[in-house]
Every structure is written in structure tokens, then in C-alpha cells.
Amino acid sequence: MRENIHRFFRAARGAGVHVSPAESIDAMRAVAQVGVSDRAILRDTLLLTLAKSQDEKLALGDCFDLFFSQPEPRQDQSEPDNADAQPDADASSPFGATSEAGEGQPPDGLGPLAQMLLSQDRNAVAAAIASASGAASLSDIRYSTQRGIFSSRILDAMGLQRLRDDLDELTTTNPALTERLRDALDALRETVRDTVSQGLALYAREEAENLRNEILRNAPLARIERRQVAEMRALIRQIARRLRERYSKPRKRQRRGHLDVRRTIRRNAAWGSVPFLTAWKRKHRDRPRIVAICDVSGSVAQVSDFFLLLIHSLHEVVDDVHSFAFSSHLIEVSEILEKKSPEEAMAEIMSKVGFGSSDYGSSLVDFEKEFMSTLTPQTTVIVLGDARSNNLDPRADILRRISERSKRLVWLNPEGRLAWGFGDSEMPRYATFCTVVRQCATAQQLERAVSDIVATYQ
Amino acid sequence: MAEQKPSTAIEAVESGLAAQGYIASRQIATAVYLSQQIEKPILVEGPAGVGKTELAKAIAAWRGMKMIRLQCYEGLDEAKALYEWKYAKQLLYTQILKDKLGEVLGGAQTLHAALGQLHDFGDVFFSKEFVEPRPLLQALEQPGGCVLLIDEIDKSDAEFESLLLEILSDFQVTIPELGTVSAITPPTVILTSNSERDLGDALKRRCLHLHIGFPEQRLEERIVESRVPGISQTLRRQMVGFIHEIRSLDLKKLPSVSETIDWARVLVLLQASELDTEIVKDTLNVLLKYEADIEAAQPQITTFIAKAARSNVFG
Rounded to two decimals, what is the model's pTM? Predict the structure, then answer.
């Protein structure tokens, strides 16, 4: 049973519940207290010790039910050669007599698996499958491509080879019985396949999800297929949440602090340094001010979705964000991003300025004319775009002035460094005025970039 | 080895709490039992008014232990939760001892010698004498153990959580000037949270996580039965059924168990024998705490009463 609980931990991780080694030790201690005989209490105990939120409780409860609906492998009774020895004793004695006698077939000479199948004892078969999956360590299954190999491993462990020999022998001597046995074998294959699929659902969810997320994280945003977009958005939202948790700590901490001895003494000099007035040390922290300028033109259409989503999450993390979107002309979109859900906001922004051909020059002119005053020496300006200006005047001089007025100018470009400066890319010309220029094509790079930006204010 | 024991022990918890008027579900009883057995705090989450705080009180009453309560709020810090130095007393003592100081230093000729002599006296002012224990330290100092209720931990700042970690895992605190104070008898710790903010993983890891939601109909009837003895069975069934219908609405604040009990008391006071539209309309403000919620519920009252009455017939 101990082994079984450990397998359950693995299944729980698969269900998305984080079970650290320390937690599994706690759970084992708790299980040792309540025992395993009462399944309802066991369920409560595991839920109490492992799950850390109501969602996790639901997931874990389902997982528990699924897990314990499987028959337990009977490893403890006979481990290595159960396939030959044990079902023999189980199946042949009670059923061999009844059903085989009706057919008039001598059960002797057949292998244990054949006898078990012919006896049609479902419990015995289920138990044999369970112990064979234990022997084949089904709990190690990780990917759906492994289903075939695990199925055949289980069948081998159950004694498929002997059954094949039996079948070969019987074809000539007893065609009717052969037919029955073949059907039974097909049914067995199907059951095993189901068992393996269930095992996959139970043990492999986590790995599969991690793998998929890892791939998505590193996939170029522009090359993501339509059906992956939703997953990608979920991933970016996850990133945004992480950022929020890390950086949106209450700023009240500033008020508290340690006594500033030097200032206290100086302030109270008039009273012979009896401290009537206290002075406290303060932690100074700049308030982040961010201006985000996002290209939503046709050439970056695929990526701008994610850029906007990211700016949206930036609005949640940082109080003072002004956002602008442009393709051929530029508008402020802070309000839309703040008031609406990401999807609505993105749709609205795209319908207002999206999909045009990009004109960095005139957009920068727009910015200088109307919004230059939003820049202060504390502002970080983030430009998200590929710097492809359709051979129009890039107006790099405006970017220089933006850079001079602000604390930092960060340019995030979805294109690789190799493409900069080729064709209509004005990146090298812009880059001279930027504090930081980064390629930002995957979710991971996006996360790092934003994390760096926010962190400079902490 | 112990085939029967845990389940009977859990039942004992259940009946023990029931004797204090707290009707616990099996989940709750299991949590209480386990927290005792493996010495872990219980983190209780759930909507307001389902009996999270009551649970701590019931455990304390059942075990006959003292309950120490720490109400959390924004800005709570270690001076208020753990211990504080009695500055005034320290100052006063320095004043009084000023004269003595001369005697102590009397023989010393040089500054260096005086310092050395002072040093021999040790840190008198930072000793147990001058520590004012706050709830957490008090809980550790109870010789017979106690129930420590850390109420609404989600209202405190994230830093405060870290302060708790040492207490929750090892039942000890470290006071820099004094050293480590360990619990004489580990207290039973109950933390409650309304999930106003997400608690840190480190804190969650140290606790059993218990979620108390709205109780099932049967359980809620039993709770009402134990809390409001005068109420008739028919009325009890009807009102609990009615409340379960109300909870299916999309309201700002769903009525919880404490509201159920209040309402039952009101109904008994009004000597109602069963629900009717009139009496429900008059007393709806006991159940619902927002004008908008009352308005939303008004048109449904008659259907809900009918439904509750029907389920009464079949159930």
C-alpha cells in the first residue's frame, strides 16, 4: 500500500497538485495515523495534507477517485513470475471444470493465460492486468507515443508468448477453441489498451503539460498556430500573474522603518538631545513610470496580440503606465487597456489603428506633438516593434529627444538581430538612442524583458 | 495494527465538538484529529460566517483549554503579535538605578575599567523581565497548551506571514536578545482566511488545508437544531431548504450559516410555525445584507418557498 500511496503522489502531480517531498512526508505521516482501511478517511486525509486550495482539492478528489477505481496491483503476493504460477491456481480450479466441461475440452496442456481467458473470469483477468501493469511499471508512462510499448510490455508480462504457442498448436487440433481464444485475446488487447490510456491520463498529465508549455515558451510568437493562441495567451497571463505577485507588494512598507538615530539627535538638539521628536529611516523607492509604445501594423500583426496582452498585464502590475498604439498614426490606449478585458481591449485597439502599414516617422511625430509631456526623468519608455518603416523617413531625431527626456529607452524587437538593418528595417539607426535593445520573439524573452524593466524600480 | 482506532477517534472528535454546539462535518473532524496527531496547524478557508472562528472556540471549549486570539489586520507587526520591550519600565529602572551606577563604577579609575565592570552586569535590560508577551508568545508560554487562533491571516501583510513560519513549523520563536523560546506544550493552531489575498506557499505548506464551504442541507439542519433549540422540525426544514435556494442566486453576499442561525432565531421569536411569503419578506433583511441582493431575491420568494416545501415532502 505504501508503494501505492507513492504512486498516488505521482498521479497527484499529474493532476496539477504540487506535491513536494516534504509534503509527501507529511501526508505519509498522516496516513500512518489514520490507516488505509477506511477509504473515505484516507481521501479526506490526503486532501487535507496535499491540496492547498479549493481548486486543488477538487482536482485531487477526482484524481483519488480515478486512481482508486483501478484494482490494486497484487505485487505483494507474487512478484516475478505471477503470470505463470498464480492465475493458474485462481482460474483453472473453479471455472475450468464448468465452462470447459461444457465444450468438452481438456484444459490441460494450455498455458495459464489461455485458461484464464477461456474461463471468462473477469475479476481474475482484471487482477492479472493490474499486476502485470505493476510489473511493466505503467506509472512511468510519460508520453502518448509510449502507449504501444507499454501495452505490449503488459501483454508480455501476462504470458502472451505462451498463448501464441497454444494458439499455434490448437489451430490444427481444435479450430473452434482457437476461434474463441482469438476473440478473447482481441478483447484482452482492448482492455489492456484502455488500462494504458487510463495510466497515461493519470501519470502523464504533468509531463505533457510541462513539455507543451516549454515548447510554447520558446516558440517564436509570430509562428504560433491559431489553435495554440489560446494556450499562449494563458501562458502570458500566467507570466503576468507571476510578475504581479513579485512586484505589486504593498508600498506601505515605506512608512515603516528603523529609527534614524543621527537625524533624531540632531532634531532634538534644542532639548539637550532628549528625544521628543523621532525621525525614522525611510526606504526610498521610485514609483515606476512606464510609457509603452506598441506597433500594431500588419507586419507585426501576429506578435502585436501578445505585445498588447503584455502591456495589459503591465497595467495591472504598475500604476503609472501610459500606453500608445500605432501603425501609421499613433493614439493613446491606456484607458482602453485599463477598463476592458484583454480580449475586448485588443479587439478595440486593432479596429482603431491596427493592421495598417507602419509609418514610424509620422507616429513619432504624433507622439512628440501630443504626448511628449508625459515623459519625465523617471520614465522608462518601451517600444515594441520591428522598426520596419516602409522606407519612409524614420525621424530618428524624435526618438533621440524621447530618449533625452526619459530615464531609459528600451526597444523590444520581435525580429532576430540578423534581420536588423536589412530591407526597410531602421533598427540600427534607432538603436543608437536606445538604452537597451533586445530581441523579443518568444514568451520567455518577453517575460525576462518585462521583469527586468519592472525590477529596476524595486 | 490499528484498524478501528482512527475512525472511532474521528467520531470522538465529532461528538466532542457537537457537545459544544459545533456540528462538524467528517472533513472537519478529520482535520482536527490529524492536526492533533501530527502536530500541524490547520488553515481554514471559506466564505465569511461558515464557522471558521467558531471551530477554534469549540475545540478550546471541548478540550478545556484557553483560547488565545490574534486578530490580523493590515500593518500588524511583531511588536503587536509577538513581544515588545517594556521601554517605559526600562527607562524608569535606569533612572532609579542611576545612583547605584556610581557605586558600581566606584572603584574604576579609567573609562576602560568602568566599561569592563559594566559589561559584567550583562544585558539586564534585555531580559525576560522587560519583555511584554503578545498573543503569539503567550500561546507558547501556556504550560497546559492552548488553542491559538490566528484570525483572518489574509488581512495581514505578506511580511507578517514570514514571521509566523517559525512558530507554525517548530512552535518556537527567536527573540534576538534572549534566544529561542520553545513551546512548553505545542498549542493547537487554527488560522482562518477569507481568501482576500493569496497566502504564500511556505505558509500553506506548514498547515493542513481545510476548506469549509456552505454545509449540506442535512448538516445545516443539524446545526440549526443544536443552536436554536426551540425551532420546530417543519420550519427548520423549510427555512434551510429556502436558504439553499437563495444560495443558488447570483448575489453579492450569500447568506452563510451564521445568517441561517440568526434567521432561525428571528423566526422563533416571531413564533412562526412555517414559512409564508409575508414573513419571509419581513425578515429577509436578516438573511441578506445588501439592498441590491434583497431586491434580486424578492420576486423569487414564492417559488423558493414552494420548492422548499416540496423538497420537504420528498426528503
Answer: 0.60
